[in-house]
Design goal:
136 residues, mainly beta, OB fold (Dihydrolipoamide Acetyltransferase, E2P), six-stranded antiparallel beta sheet, 15% helix
Length: 136
Amino acid sequence: MSMNLAKIHIRGRLGQDPVLSESKTGKKYYRLSVAVNSGMEDKKKTSWFPVYFSEKWNLEDWKKGDLVDIEGDIKTETYEKDEVKRMSVTVFPQNVLNISLAERNRDKKSAELAKEEEFSTDFEDIDEDIPDITIQ
């Protein structure tokens, strides 16, 4: 049995905040564009990949500029524009990681933990004698 696969793995930055749209048939979806840079500094090129998410994905906290890692199925189409044959690639995600969001959440949790620790008034666990402080 042979298996045909058309997969893509991209890591890049979001070109805009996610926007929820609706198809002609009434299905809701998110469309994002992910920018991927390649090439050396003097010949750097940016490729844009449209990615479609069903409304079931929670993209509420995703922001323009977020670094994302997406693996999914691809669909390619050829078309002609200005008498030039072109090809488009559309990504349908399966495995997704928003690296920037994970870092924001980790930093937020770290800040919350530090806040709890910093303002702790529980001195019962301390074995040492706490010196009296005199304010004059």
